[in-house]
Structure formats: C-alpha cells, structure tokens
Write a structure and sequence with these properties.
Largest sheet: 8 strands, antiparallel
Shape: elongated
Structural class: alpha+beta
CATH class of the largest domain: Mainly Beta
CATH topology of the largest domain: Umud Fragment, subunit A
Oligomer: single chain
Number of domains: 2
C-alpha cells in the first residue's frame, strides 16, 4: 500500500516536477549570488600577477586574493604588498610593496633606503627581509617627501619594476587593497606574510 506522500508524488505531472526543479535551481543560484557577489565586489577581489616586478615573492600568472575591507578600517602599513590602480592609467592594476607612509621622507642613497619621520628624525635604514638578496641595491639615488595622503611603493624585483622611483608617490585613493592569499599555483597556496 502506498503512503499518502507517494500517492501525491505520483499525481504530479512530469512537466510540473521539472518546473519545480528549475525553480529550486534558480533559488539556489540567487542565494549563491547574494552571498558571493558582495564578497567579490566589496570584501575580496581576485588579482592575477602580470610581469616580474615582484619576484621572488610573486610570480607572473599567480592568482592572488586581495582584501578590500581592511583599508576601510585602517591605513596601509609599511611592508604590505598592495594592489592599486596605476595613477598614470587607472585602467591598469599594479602590485607593489608599501615603503614610505604619509608625511615621511624617503631617501634612496648608495643602494639603501632610509625613512625619516617624527619617530626617526635622523633616519631609519629599512631592513627588507622580503628581498631576494640583502646585497640587492635600490637605484637611483633620490629623495621623496610624501604628502598627507601619499605612499611610496616599490617592486621587490627592483631592477625590473616601474614604481614610485619613476612615476612618483601614490595617492591613497588609488589603493584597492592588500594581498592576503595566494590561490594559484596550488604548490604555493596559502596566506601571504606581511613584513
């Protein structure tokens, strides 16, 4: 003997069953989009590395996840790898490392970087453990005084990077977010350390 539920299922025409399945699939899709889209557009964004300017820490074609929410709550910090819109062509996205903060003076001399601010009036020589070699010199010699919303950013691969040495300081408004996770290649999967 069939249960009442089985009898009801048997009475539903196949077309109606098919329409119910489509309706359920649409509901699942809409709920998924309602969860994923805000995360994608307001919290975290994917970024694919192009070029060699951040080697050996980030390589061409690596897939990174960029945290967009942190910089709504706090300012970028020295040593963080950040993604931003290139000031000379905002359609392009760059990845670099924050070296100088607003109000500081950045001095590059004899291959070394020195930071001058209210805490380090005589200058602090920057120790850059993220560089491939401590012998890697940063050139050319220059001095950059940063405004109240300006940052000085450099690529980790100093010999192959278009950065603040060549096009000037980066205004805060161009920042997208900080790199927090490497999703590809799988052999390098993991959280990104900031220095």
């Amino acid at each position: 003997m069939n249960s009442p539920e089985t009898q009801e299922e048997a009475k539903v025409p196949p077309t109606k069953n098919w329409l119910l399945e489509i309706r359920e699939a649409i509901k699942v899709l809409l709920v998924s989009l309602a969860i994923v889209l805000p995360i994608r557009y307001f919290i975290a964004q994917p970024f694919i590395v192009r070029g060699a300017s951040m080697e050996p820490n980030f390589f061409d074609r690596e897939y990174l996840v960029v945290d967009e929410i942190s910089y709504l709550l706090r300012e970028p910090q020295r040593g963080e790898a950040v993604v931003f819109r290139y000031p000379k062509d905002p359609r392009q996205f760059f990845i670099k490392r924050v070296i100088g903060l607003p109000g500081e003076r950045v001095e590059i001399k004899s291959g070394k970087i020195k930071i001058f601010n209210s805490t380090h009036l005589t200058g602090l020589t920057l120790e850059e453990s993220y560089l491939q070699s401590s012998e890697l010199a940063t050139n050319p010699d220059l001095v950059s005084t940063l405004g109240s919303k300006d940052y000085f950013v450099l690529g980790d691969n100093r010999n192959f990077s278009s950065d603040s040495r060549f096009w000037g300081s980066l205004d805060r408004r161009f920042f997208i977010g900080r790199v927090i996770f490497r999703a590809w290649p799988l052999s390098q999967l993991g959280v990104i350390a900031n220095y």
